[in-house]
Amino acid sequence: MTSSLDVVDELKIGIFSPLRLDFGGGFERFCINFAQYLRGQGHGVIIVTLDWLARNDSRMSVMSLIENLARDQVTYRILPTMGALQLAMASPLPTRGPIPIRKVLRDCDVVYFNNAYALQDFLCLAATRLSRSPPVVSAHHSVLHQNKVLHDTWVKLAVNTFWRNFQAFHALNAHDEAFLRNKTKRRVYTLPIPLNSKLYSPIEKKVSGDVCNVLFLGRLDIQKGVDILVEALRILRLDETPYLLRMTFAGDGPLREQVGILAEESDWVRYTIPSDEEKISLLREADLLIMPSRSESFGIVAGEAMLSGLPVVATMNPGCTELIRDGKTGFLIRELTPVGVAAILERCVSLWRTSPEVLRDVSIRARDAAHEYLDSKKLFPKYMRMLCDVAEAA
């Protein structure tokens, strides 16, 4: 195998994830786009998932993307799982353990594994060890440390024992890279999620108008900080800020009722569940995106917003701080409380009202930074190089 980025022997690449592709989250969309890129480079690709949807949540908007896989000659296999055990452990297991995974991955040159749920790491290693042992890249797209006892205990156990049997790791941010490198003593590749910058383009609009349009785009749950944002907006309702602000919640999730009640109480708050096309329109039309997440390994929505020329207000999570420079390419929430979020929203609305040129400059720098850091044309070849390196070293 050659070591050039331009000339690489044809590989058969396996991608294994516990979640079905129609879950439609950030990893699933990345997986589909990456598989299509690999096929375009002449490599064989097989995607293997278990028949499982976290929270029984299927996003129909991704179905057309899945259908395109067959057109691009990407093999997609869904393996049945043990339903009762799956419910008990909140983690899926195939009906015959690692054997069916072994059968579909044994001829691969390298496997890219979405290491997101307890036991899946052990399952993947067992499957590849039973075969002729294709090397495995353990990819960490989800948050490594979630402040959840069971999850964090499993990570601590796994990283100090069998994770060292993976040939390499993929982290989305420098914080996770340092943790994995220190604990496993293996090679760690740090690459953010690639985004197609052509999909996101800013439109000419007045930076200052009658109201500042603030957007939350994402899953309505605790991890995304929706409960904190709702309480922050209740605080703002007590002063004149609502007359200057229009808040849009775009998404679905367990806190939809809480958001819906706020929208019914306040004529300056609205709630919608957008299609993919509507998401892009919302990003282009907003003045500000807020992302008060308790934890994020990367923050895809922040990248999409920045590519759309939209200033982002986000928490100081590892992925976000690598994208956002406070006051330069966005704004960081330093106190993740309702009062803290209300304060930074007031600050941004004040800037929008009195110093629109500041937000205009932030928007320009944000788009330039995101284009340089996240553009798929630059990143997918680096992902390809990672897989080639690991296959070559095996």
Give me a quick take on this structure:
This protein has 394 residues and is of the alpha/beta class. It has 15 helices and 13 strands. The chain has two domains: 12-194 and 376-393, Rossmann fold (3-Layer(aba) Sandwich); 197-374, 3-Layer(aba) Sandwich (Rossmann fold), CATH 3.40.50.
Give the neighbour order of strands across the main sheet.
3-2-1-4-5-6-7
The first-level CATH class of the largest domain is given as Alpha Beta
Fraction in helix: 40-55%
From the N-terminal CA to the C-terminal CA, the straight-line distance is 12 Å
**Which sheet architecture does the biggest sheet show?**
7 strands, parallel
Number of domains: 2
Shape category: elongated
Q: Residue ranges: pLDDT <50 for 5 or more in a row?
A: 1-7, 84-89
Task: Describe, in plain words, how this protein is organized in 3D.
With 394 residues, this protein is α/β, with parallel strands linked by helices. It has helices spanning 26-40, 63-71, 83-89, 99-105, 120-130, 149-159, 174-184, 226-236, 256-265, 276-285, 300-307, 318-323, 338-354, 356-374, 376-393, and strands at residues 12-17, 44-50, 75-79, 110-114, 136-140, 168-171, 187-190, 212-217, 245-250, 269-272, 288-291, 312-315, 331-333. The chain has two domains: 12-194 and 376-393, 3-Layer(aba) Sandwich (Rossmann fold), CATH 3.40.50; 197-374, Glycogen Phosphorylase B (Rossmann fold, 3-Layer(aba) Sandwich), CATH 3.40.50.2000. It is built from 15 helices and 13 strands. Strands 3-2-1-4-5-6-7 form a seven-stranded parallel sheet, with helices on both faces. The chain has a six-stranded parallel sheet with strand order 10-9-8-11-12-13, sandwiched between helices. The N and C termini lie close together (12 Å).
